[in-house]
Amino acid sequence: MFQSRLSNEKAAKPMNILLLDDLPAHRVEVHRALALAMATDGTVKDFTPGPGEGDDGTYESRLAEDLQKAPNAPIDLIVADRDLSSYRPRYTGLSEATVRRVADALGVPECGYARGERADDPEYIKRGEQSEACIRLPLKPIDEFARRIVAIAKGFQSIASRVRAMPDATKQPPAKLLARILDKPEYADKISLYSSGDQNRLMILREAGASNDKSQRLACLLGYWLWDSVLRFPGVTVGVTPASSYLNILHEEFRDNERIQVLFAAAKYTGPFADAKKPMWWRGMLDDIVAHSGLRDGREFAAKELRVDIPPSQCCEDPRRTAGYYCMINQKPVSAENSKGGLPWFPRGADLARVSKTKLEELGPWL
After folding, report:
1. In this structure, what are the phi and psi dihedrals at residue 71, rounded to the nearest 5 degrees?
2. CB 81 within 8 A of CB 20
């Protein structure tokens, strides 16, 4: 089985997650879940506001000062509730958006969360998914939230460790550098296609290459690029649904049949942000497995290896058609004939990303 060198790297130091939640009862609940998920991999710390009544400069300047001092520092990941207005008196009216701006300036990754108690919390999460350099997660179920937070923290820390170990890191083109970090230098050209639609981020990456805190900021920005572009849009990597569609295997069969997934284990993605409960695969390595078998697609390969009939993928618009692609809106397999690709907000490298005809008709003006 292929194993990325990243998955075997030992962290140079324990992780430090800083939690910002202004309501004590809520903070205890989230802290406990994070600490349980973290186990022996590091420490969860509650944010400690500095002294003062909140009249000594802007929120941003005060927060930047507090985050860089003990007991808050050092920090590998900031986790912040959406509403932080009860940090009184020093931070009355504080929000997660302000925390994110300060974290960006410091080169520290940040993840916001919503409790689901406000009517617009789902929209808050969705806006985060559509923004660059922004990670937002729903809090419930809290054990899944905590597990994903730890995977995110490990991912950023792994990238930072690799960047620090590369003396020439800040002189490399972003795509080439990220490909090296992923132990896939041969995928540099494919990853470079994810730069379309990400010009703001890449401009910041170039600026980070010339700044005093360049390695830290570079690692942070590369992590965001990997999280919300390269791993999000199927092309270089594929999650369970796009993988099943691409291999021409019924989604439910691929998702639930461990024997089928074992056949493609050599292609499993094990780099930063890998999550055992949300597996991903290298698309190129899936191609290699199928090509080596001499068969037409993943379905034929699985059927031959397991000596059973494997149902084909089904287009969400017309189950009589096989799929092959993935609708980014309804998150279902879709066929080329019943969908559209190449939308302006798709990276050029995401050639498996589409929008189904139904969703195009429903949301066309907004897409």
Report:
1. -85, 0
2. yes
Say whether pLDDT at 306 is over 70.
yes
The 3-state DSSP class for residue 282 equals strand
Q: What pTM was estimated for this model as a whole?
A: 0.89
Render pLDDT for 187-215 as a digit per residue (tens, 0 to 9). Answer: 999 999 998 544 455 555 555 544 446 78
Collapsed DSSP state (helix, strand, coil) of residue 352 = coil
Distance, first Cα to last Cα, the chain: 40
Q: Smallest Cα–Cα separation from 264: which of 321, 316, 313, 306?
A: 306
Three-class SS of 67-111: HCCCCCCCCCEEEEECECCCCCCCCCCCEHHHHHHHHHHHCCCEE
DSSP for 301-341 reads HHHHHHTS--PPP--SS-TTS--EEEETTT-SEEESTTEE-
| Spatial contact of 283 and 352, defined as CB atoms under 8 Å apart | yes
| Calpha distance 102→209 (Å, rounded) | 19
**CA 132 to each of CA 27, 70, 181, 294: distance values in angstroms, whole numbers, following the listed order:** 27, 30, 20, 41
Closest by CA to 182, choosing from 286, 291, 274, 275, is 274
Burial code (b: 16+ CB inside 10 Å, e: under 16) for 107-123 equals bbbbbbbbbeeeeebee
Query: What single DSSP character describes residue 121?
Result: H
Is residue 299 exposed (0-12), middle (13-18) or buried (19+ Cβ within 10 Å)? buried
| Strands 110-114 and 135-138, sheet pairing | parallel
With a CB cutoff of 8 Å and minimum separation 6, the contacts of 178 are: 188, 191, 222, 225, 226, 230
Total length of the chain: 367
Query: At how many degrees (to 10) do helices 142-164 and 24-38 cross?
Result: 60
